[in-house]
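Retry 2 of 3 after timeout on previous attempt. Resubmitting structure tokens to design endpoint.
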């Protein structure tokens, strides 16, 4: 449920991830291919110092040191073995980054996804390696939301993750979060001002989060700290959050709220559009954002994800009577 930003590294301790781009979805960029292939080869043969030197300061800070990168390389090599072959490659430009992705078969039978993201100066701004994910099976693909859902905020927000495919939404591999959303606020193509080192730099920080429908509060957490940029709380993935029972077997989760801002208690009846807290950075999250998803139970770890179709909203300026926002759209409530 972490909002996986492309300025981290997937190690055994923390996960900063993204979805798989479909091979052939766009013509590969030759320079990004060259860089991605070069750094994948360096990492696989153990030349981690060369990789480290090309990482941005933000990447190095998020990783925590050359020793951690070296330990990660040893762990990947031991678990997967040498690369046996490349299954496919792709490149993508998004949010000011050039991203290279590779699916590769390895000698121990595993298929791994390799991803590198580069800034304009060719510095490494994101990197991860993980088993190739698959979209979770769901019996609810044709489900129609019963509650009258509105967007859980006012103003214009950007859909960082949302949709039904892994390309659109890395949550799609998780059964309970199969149709989840991560929302941020972007201005001039960025989610923050300055270098983004402070929580207060983020445009969505402390913005009101609203009940997306009438419902009853069945769970709330409010005392967890907001994580500094570069740190995550994997023991409390949802962080400060509110769970609403919307009736008819629909439960909605609103997560990563700012500590001390949750305004509702268990048993409270809330109305659609009522403020329930403020956007924060608590839990397993890489930057301030709102995570929202709907499922069949109030237990984060035991439920089946349900599609959340919102009513009467704007997507990239076009009115939607009913729909599911997807990654890359800017959405807001029509006034």
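Retry 2 succeeded. Sequence:
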């Amino acid at each position: 449920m972490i909002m996986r930003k492309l300025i981290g590294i997937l190690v055994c301790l923390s996960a900063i991830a993204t979805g798989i781009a479909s091979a052939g979805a766009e013509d590969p960029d030759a320079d990004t291919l060259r860089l991605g292939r070069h750094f994948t080869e360096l990492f696989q043969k153990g030349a981690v110092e060369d990789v480290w030197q090309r990482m941005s300061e933000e990447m190095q800070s998020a990783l925590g040191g050359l020793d951690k990168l070296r330990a990660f390389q040893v762990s990947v090599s031991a678990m997967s073995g040498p690369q046996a072959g490349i299954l496919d490659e792709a490149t993508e430009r998004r949010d000011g980054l050039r991203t290279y992705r590779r699916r590769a078969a390895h000698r121990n039978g595993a298929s791994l996804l390799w991803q590198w993201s580069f800034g304009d100066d060719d510095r490494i701004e994101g990197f991860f390696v993980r088993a190739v994910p698959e979209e979770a099976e769901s019996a609810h693909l044709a489900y129609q939301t019963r509650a009258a859902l509105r967007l859980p905020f006012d103003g214009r927000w950007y859909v960082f993750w949302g949709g039904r495919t892994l390309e659109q939404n890395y949550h799609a591999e998780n059964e309970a979060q199969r149709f989840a959303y991560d929302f941020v606020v972007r201005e001039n193509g960025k989610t923050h001002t300055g270098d983004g080192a402070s929580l207060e730099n983020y445009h969505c920080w402390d913005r009101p989060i609203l009940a997306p429908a009438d419902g009853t509060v069945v769970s709330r957490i409010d005392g967890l700290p907001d994580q500094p940029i570069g740190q995550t709380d994997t023991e409390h993935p949802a962080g400060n959050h509110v769970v609403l029972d919307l009736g008819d077997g629909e439960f909605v989760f609103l997560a990563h709220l700012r500590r001390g801002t949750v305004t509702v208690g268990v048993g409270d009846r809330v109305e659609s559009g009522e403020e329930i807290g403020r956007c924060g950075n608590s839990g397993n999250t890489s930057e301030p954002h709102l995570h929202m998803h709907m499922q069949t139970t109030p237990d984060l770890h035991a439920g089946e994800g349900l599609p959340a179709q919102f009513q009467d909203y704007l997507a990239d300026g076009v009115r939607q009577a009913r729909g599911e926002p997807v990654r890359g759209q800017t959405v807001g409530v029509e006034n």
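Attempt log closed. The first strand starts at residue 9 and ends at 10.
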